[in-house]
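in:
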């Protein structure tokens, strides 16, 4: 039993990213191509620069010609690259690389993140339309819908920023898009691009306004004492 356990311990381990196993179909790989990748990569990890095709052929139960055909497909899909390099003695050898596979995996992840962000942004825009209708207490007109759409498509305002401008309009009891648009333009001129930046500006403005209300009024300057006017015509003879 101990010998059986040592057999597994002594066997070389192959490291593979779980992302490849989870996304190989999205990367355009078939199951056979995935297994071939594992076979080649395991030999590369073991230090063999040139994989043993015969060994891979036996492991997969396929003819060598089929293995070469699968390898060609991996090259066509830009998953596998076989480059010719020269050693110190000028001898040319083939170098196998799966860098293209990992680049595809990174691109796939970015695309999925972009799709997720776009979906979230779409939901946020829908929420903006509904929020404005709720605050205005009525349905939006086609012209108003077009104005809001331009905020996103042309002005590229973030939904959170528009929502904050709506809140400011409501606090000031102004229920029209023109007022909200003026708020957004004012923020844009001040290089305010996010709701967080706008919130900081609003807090600062409120602090300044509050300071003005709490500052005691300046006391008037103390009136100067009156200087009596002495009429020379009223002096008596003795005063002369």
């Amino acid at each position: 039993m101990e010998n059986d356990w040592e057999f597994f311990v002594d066997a070389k381990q192959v490291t593979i990213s779980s992302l490849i196993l989870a996304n190989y179909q999205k990367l355009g790989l078939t199951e056979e191509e995935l297994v071939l990748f594992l076979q080649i990569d395991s030999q590369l990890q073991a230090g063999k620069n040139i994989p043993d095709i015969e060994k891979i052929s036996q492991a997969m139960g396929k003819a060598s010609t089929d293995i070469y055909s699968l390898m060609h497909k991996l090259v066509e899909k830009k998953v596998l690259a076989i480059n010719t390099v020269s050693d110190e003695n000028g001898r040319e050898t083939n170098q196998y690389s799966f860098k293209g596979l990992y680049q595809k995996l990174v691109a796939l992840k970015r695309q999925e993140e972009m799709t997720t962000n776009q979906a979230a942004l779409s939901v946020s825009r829908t929420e903006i339309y509904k929020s404005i209708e709720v605050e205005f207490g009525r349905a939006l007109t086609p012209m108003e819908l077009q104005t809001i759409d331009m905020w996103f498509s042309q002005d590229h305002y973030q939904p959170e920023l528009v929502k904050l401008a709506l809140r400011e309009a409501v606090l000031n009891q102004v229920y029209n898009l023109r007022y909200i648009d003026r708020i957004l333009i004012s923020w844009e001129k001040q290089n305010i691009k996010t709701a967080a930046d706008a919130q900081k500006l609003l807090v600062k403005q409120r602090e300044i306004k509050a300071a003005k209300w709490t500052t005691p009024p300046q006391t008037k300057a103390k009136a100067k004492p009156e200087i009596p006017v002495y009429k020379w015509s009223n002096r008596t003879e003795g005063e002369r």
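note: The longest helix spans residues 99-136.
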